[in-house]
TrEMBL record, chain A:
GO cellular component, one term: plasma membrane
Parts of the chain that traverse the membrane: 42-65, 99-120, 132-153, 190-213, 234-254, 293-313
Principal location class: membrane
Taxonomic placement: Bacteria, Bacillati, Actinomycetota, Actinomycetes, Kitasatosporales
A Gene Ontology biological process term: transmembrane transport
UniProt similarity note: Belongs to the binding-protein-dependent transport system permease family.
Protein's name in the database: Cytochrome C biogenesis protein
Keyword Membrane assigned: yes
Stored CDD domains: TM_PBP2 (cd06261)
Membrane topology recorded in Swiss-Prot or TrEMBL: Multi-pass membrane protein
From TrEMBL, chain B:
InterPro entries per the UniProt record, alphabetical: Bact_solute-bd_prot1, SBP, TAT_signal
Source species: Streptomyces regalis
Annotated Pfam families: SBP_bac_1
PROSITE patterns xref list: TAT
Source species, domain of life: Bacteria
PANTHER family linked: ARABINOSE-BINDING PROTEIN-RELATED, SUGAR BINDING SECRETED PROTEIN
Protein name, per record: ABC transporter substrate-binding protein
SUPFAM superfamilies: Periplasmic binding protein-like II
Coiled-coil zones: none
Length: 338, 427
């Protein structure tokens, strides 16, 4: 029983008290005494949520107006953290890096996921094997894999550059060139999430009636035409879902650049020039490497704002067309009114 | 007896409440039992054998007290700060890395060791190391552990191929300063076209900085990080990069090991622990081929650590007894033979265990290089704001290595630092 039911029970009970007394003549218990077992039953989640969810969120608002090194007294400094944030070139660089890495990873990934899903959908043999194989990267340890891929991308002793040298294509500074660094991070992100998104697209594909495909075949469409003219348009809602989740994940990218470009002795993150510093990595550096917890909290709220903006954009995209709306027309009307 | 569901739930709730009780009430400020002195360290920071002895047989000189050590692992600083901010279940003693000055603004979190007559022990330890434990207000909040005096490591076999002397004394005479070191690097190219003398140019900067008599701030808090001496060090790093004598390996990347394993970097200036962290662990096959000599440009220190007693300690006197016992000259020798932690007490340098010849270094007595090097390190004023400035210079040098103009980089570094120091309220 949820909290809502318990609350509803309370109002019913209150009404009952005034309207008609219980048949046995005893006075009914007040609401909380009658329903405490239900409250107790649902409390563990709310207690944990209060301690590890609500409190930290509230405290980070408080912290973002403070100067605090993590040990000593907090010192209120008003809007100073936010004022510094706006003029902090490292912060803006981290936003730029995050967006570039996000585009470099999301665009190829969504396309690849679709192609893989289409391939999986049309495979005849070893269906289950391929599905598991593509999903496995998503359940491996991201830290371990980034470490391994780190030695693949490594500039002078890496596998990738050895291969490039072998075909006389020259070296690429995968871990030192500003663009190549972002490509490296994006490549790891793609590797990890493409299978997951392919499975989601596959589920969407299977929901498309086979009649449409058969009709296309009868009309003489080839594979390419079927893919671009039928599969992609029919999958629009699924593609948007994938894009939305990738956006939220992409803006919070942390592990890959943190492991690929470890914090050095001086406390610098994100590799040479900080070219792979994402927003969350920057937050981590400010709060946990430089002990600027107040400023870290302010960065966190800036990120919140950014995600909120992107979510609104996404929501407008989804809500923009009737055929893509997930809910009914009635629900949509409601949300428009808001 | 079968446990009914109701009874099971009651038991569960009871034990949960019991478990939360002592931890949650917040009345216990110091971690551990009343007769336990608790110690938080990271891996390989103290002698495991000595600690085990204090854990089982008690702390020598502190009747009735035992030690309890926990290696709290990664993110050490964050965990320590969390415990101190929580003001409950704080360990008696914590390890502090070479960034001890970071704790100076919060010096009242720690016990002033002068209260126990620490000054009497001063003559046992290296002067520069001792002075790093003392805050500008004169409180001694930390006690010396190990140090990292620098030396010039080199592959004797590769130097021979290039026709360069392999005798430590002769080599040191040949490269007494950085210009000599650069010339040495160029000679190495005779037998190996791509030879380098450093992993990246930031490394040059940090080694050179460690050789100077002052860092970024004076004792009275004036910024001196824009002086000519530092500008020259900055340009020295750039020059070594321009000569092609830097491998350009990003910090923390596997390439740092790669250049050692492949022999591309046959020489390198590093702290005493560098030998263990790089050639000995990454290139064990090169054992016996390495030697050490006096470092070009003078000796310096990189790394090293401290122990501090928190103000929440249940018995600071017993904690002090433990620290002074663990870091006595004899026991520092033990820590060296067991864990390769280089002593901060020069009294230990003359001990036979320290003077043993080292097979990895072709039977050389490396103490003959690192001992004098440790004594020659200059006393430098460290500031709590160093942690703000160090990354700025390092980041700009990384930019220089990827092609940024060195003058622009220096100017940008100065501007960033000015901005950061104003923000921290330091200037």
């Amino acid at each position: 029983m949820g909290l809502a039911d318990a609350l509803r029970g309370k109002t019913v009970e209150r009404r009952g008290r005034t309207a008609k007394p219980p048949p046995d003549g005893s006075r009914p218990l007040p609401g909380w005494r009658r329903y405490w077992p239900m409250y107790t039953a649902v409390s563990p989640f709310f207690l944990l949520f209060a301690v590890f969810g609500v409190f930290p969120v509230g405290f980070s608002i408080y912290l973002s107006f403070m100067s605090w090194d993590g040990i000593g007294e907090t010192r209120p400094i008003g809007w100073e953290n936010y004022a510094y944030l706006v003029t902090d070139s490292d912060f803006w660089q981290s936003i730029g890096n995050t967006l570039v890495i996000w585009i470099l990873s999301t665009v190829p990934m969504v396309f690849l996921a679709l192609v893989i899903a289409y391939a999986l959908h049309t495979t005849v043999r070893f269906k289950a094997f391929y599905r598991v194989a593509y999903f496995v990267p998503n359940v491996t340890s991201i830290v371990a894999m980034t470490l391994v891929l780190g030695s693949v991308f490594s500039d002078s002793s890496g596998l990738l550059n050895s291969a490039l040298r072998a075909i006389s294509a020259g070296e690429v500074g995968w871990l030192s060139d500003p663009w190549a660094m972002k490509v490296s991070v994006a490549a790891i992100t793609i590797w990890r999430w493409v299978g997951y998104n392919a499975i989601i697209c596959l589920a969407g594909l299977q929901a498309i009636s086979s009649d449409v495909f058969e009709a296309a075949k009868v009309d003489g469409a080839d594979n390419r035409q079927t893919f671009f003219r039928i599969t992609i348009p029919m999958l629009r809602p699924v593609i948007l879902f994938v894009a939305v989740t990738s956006t939220i994940g992409g803006l919070q990218l942390f592990t890959e650049p943190q492991v690929l470009f470890p914090v050095d002795d001086n406390g610098n993150v994100g590799g040479p020039g900080g070219e792979a510093t994402t927003i969350v990595l920057y937050l981590y550096q400010q709060a946990f490497v430089f002990n600027r917890f107040g400023y870290g909290a302010a960065v966190g709220w800036a990120l919140f704002l950014l995600i909120a903006v992107f979510s609104v954009i996404n929501w407008r995209l989804i809500g923009g067309r009737d055929e893509d709306a997930i809910g009914t027309g009635k629900r949509k009307g409601k949300s428009r009114a808001r | 007896m079968a446990v009914s569901r109701r009874r099971f739930l009651a038991l569960g709730a009871g034990s949960a409440a019991g478990g939360f009780g002592p931890a949650g009430c917040g009345s216990q400020r110091s971690l551990g039992d009343p007769d336990e002195i608790t110690l938080w360290t990271w891996d390989r920071s103290v002698s495991d054998e000595l600690v085990a002895r204090a854990e089982t047989k008690g702390i020598p000189g502190a009747q009735g007290f035992k030690l309890s050590r926990t290696n709290i692992g990664g993110h050490f600083n964050t965990k320590v700060r969390t415990a101190l901010a929580g003001k409950s279940l704080v360990p008696d003693i914590i390890g502090i890395n070479s960034d001890v000055a970071t704790y100076f603004p919060n010096q009242d979190m720690f016990v002033d060791l002068n209260a126990f007559g620490a000054a009497e022990l001063k003559s046992r330890y290296l002067d520069w190391k001792w002075s790093e434990c003392i805050t500008p207000e004169g409180r001694m909040i930390a006690f010396p552990m190990d140090t990292g005096p620098t030396g010039l490591f080199y592959r004797a076999d590769l130097l021979q191929e290039a026709g360069i002397t392999t005798d430590p004394k002769e080599l040191a005479a040949r490269a007494p300063d950085w210009d000599g070191f650069i010339a040495l690097g160029k000679e190495l190219r005779r037998s190996q076209e791509r030879a380098v003398i450093c992993p990246n140019i930031r490394h040059v900067w940090s080694i050179r900085l460690g050789q100077l008599g002052s860092k970024f701030m004076t004792e009275d808090g004036r910024y001196i990080g824009d002086r000519d001496e530092l500008r020259e060090a900055f340009e020295l790093a750039y020059r070594i990069g321009r000569e092609g004598l830097s491998a350009g390996a990003p910090e923390g990347s596997p390439d740092l090991y790669g250049v050692i394993t492949s022999g591309r970097q046959p020489v390198g200036i590093g702290a005493v622990w560098w030998g263990l962290a790089f050639p000995e662990s990454a290139a064990p096959k090169t054992g016996g081929k390495w030697r050490v000599a006096d470092p070009p440009g003078g000796s310096g220190n990189v790394g090293g650590s401290f122990l501090a007693i928190t103000k929440y300690s249940k018995n600071p006197e017993a904690a002090y007894k433990f620290i002074t016992w663990l870091q006595s000259p004899e026991n520092q020798v033990k820590a060296f033979t067991e864990m390769s932690l280089f002593p901060s007490s020069p009294h230990s340098f003359t001990r036979p265990e320290m003077r043993e010849s080292r097979p990895f270094y072709g039977g050389q007595r490396t103490i003959e290089v690192f001992g004098p090097s440790a004594r020659q390190v200059r006393t430098v004023n460290k500031s709590p704001y160093d942690r703000v400035m160090d990354p700025v210079f390092a980041a700009e040098l990384a930019n220089v290595e990827s092609g940024k103009n060195v003058d622009t980089a220096w100017r940008d570094a100065q501007n960033t630092i000015e901005r950061e120091l104003i923000r921290e309220g330091a200037i």
